[in-house]
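thought: fold this chain, then report.
action: predict
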Amino acid sequence: MRTQFSPSQRLVVAMSGGVDSSAVAYMLREAGHDLVGLFMRNGVDIKESEVSKKSCCSLGDARDARMVSAKLGIPFQAMDLSAEFQDVIQYFVSEYGRGRTPNPCAVCNRDLKMGKLLDFAEELGCAGVATGHYARISVEDGRVRLRRGVDRTKDQSYQLFSVKEKDLKRTATPLGDMEKVEVRALAEQAGIRTYAKKDSQEICFVPSNDYRRLLKERGVELHPGRIVDVYGRDHGEHEGTEHFTIGQRRGHGVAVGIPMYVVEIHPEEGLVVVGTEADCKAPSMVVDDLNWLGFDAPLGGSFRCAVQVRYRHDAAPATVELNDMGTRGIVTFDEPQMAVAPGQGAAFYELDEAAHAGTELSLGGGWIESAARSQESPEALEVAR
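observation:
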């Protein structure tokens, strides 16, 4: 286990009640760290029937976190972040209202896990926070280096693109060097009760995995209207643009003999535009609010890198042209990329030109503001019809 902290430094461990954070607490305790276990209460009321569908932030998770802390002999506290979580939820529903696809996990990492928890750690006189993220953080020559986790199926470096370098410098992620199967085996060997607990697959405040229900519960005003294809042909009505995301292939009700995808969303007009796979590919995009990690960006210039546009996406080679402040850039892909959605994060990775792929090293990233759209000739749709 490698971290940037010495055993003499006290740390807060963000404990969710799952196997990952429990294993982190065990590993750090074994390494000699003085620890404080902290559980974040999000204030979301989750029905017992839905608890089994997720694995963080429920009452049962709080109990598991407390019991693991007791077994390890470390002090434990539950921190009420319900007000802060409400801000994340409001951001989530507002983005859908704007025709965008939100990324609440990246916002939570930036504002809460590496934000509020670091403030709390400082109040306790701790050097930093340890989390169960599958990513590798190191400090080299005074600069943070964020790398993908060894377990590429669990890698979470993408979700850390917007965390400030100064905050990552105070964050330890011991699981970055481990495979998930190793983490479970270690937890079982240590007698940790959560060793076989299922991983969370959904957003913590949407346990049913039905965000439309959340929009309804929040009283979000929907934008009903029409579904049209990229050539303006009408394909019927819809109940609200909020029910669609860029790249959506199913559930839009358009059947023309070939797969059709949502390619544009215009809430003001109540318009949802669908097209073919080629129509859904973006040759370029605008990325805003850029955040750099251990990388001196060429302000007003350009550079090559690999860009990941969503959690399950292979980073693609691209050229980035920056404004003079280095806060906004135009990304032009070597090859158009599928389902580039405004509102999602764009994480930049060092590019291996010879391999035509991204390396493990993150350079930072930003938020997708807009994306260009490739267009296919009308004949493809005419044939399908």
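thought: worth noting. The first helix runs from residue 19 to 30.
final: tokens above.
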